[in-house]
Request: fold
Amino acid sequence: MQSKSNRVIKIEPTGSALGADIDDVDLSRPLEDDVIAAITDAWHEHLVLRFRAQSLDDADLVRFSRLFGELDMAPITSSGEVEIPEYPEILVVSNVKVNGKSIGSLGNYEAEWHTDMSYVEQPPKMTCLYSLEVPEEGGDTSFLNMYAAYEALPDETRRVIDGKRAKHDYSRNSAGEVRKGFEGFADESDPRKIPGAWHPLVTTHPQTGRRALYLGRRRNGYIEGMSVEDSEILLDQLWAHATKPDFRWDQKWRVGDLVVWDNRCTMHRRDAFDDDSRRILHRTQVKGSERPV
Ligand code: SIN
Reply:
């Protein structure tokens, strides 16, 4: 039987552990309430949605993103600037340089598995990433279903991690670069001394009620109350489990793709790509309304 959402919009699951395509909605136009509700339901069910062949300007991207809540302001660049002054909510993700100066963040390097901004107390709930220019090869973005990762854990491991909290490193971005203002932690090797937010290792999604493994970022992670050595062993086990292909879907970008993910039950990473090619994406983030619990 078709789901209620599928009667309003056409939803094609990727066939992998998460993700679905929605191809019959033009996001540059105002959306009817039943379409917005169907997209929201599909997002909760599939965790990552991809809308192909869109033609969006920055105003469209911001308008669409705001349907799901208040937006975060994009972080100030390392040179202290707002990337798009008319739309300070938009972060430019790009390797392109103009007159030797980067127009965006994250360069061409690999971005390691992470949950966006898990290093703050109240991380964003949704991220929207829209592609304007993409390389022929590389720069793919992969996603993990962290409900499935939790559900597949052995009972004994679930018992061990239940009720435990881990620290999520604030000092570096997902490409491993030290953030501005955190240079003093560049050589710190004790994860207990690195600044960051504490979150439960197992969280409950506020809308779906499903439990998810919440790992956030590996580097400088630390599980409260354990020796650093034991914490490293357990984190390594959890990361090896969560990043298995069984829980993963890979997005190969085309120009005009808008990909929207639920930051509370997924992680993502990005492949490196040739710096001679151009990759430009615009990103928005919808604020989370609660701390992960
Ligand atoms: C990100 O980690 O938010 C960026 C992902 C990408 O560049 O594909």
Q: What stands out?
A: The chain has six helices and 19 strands.
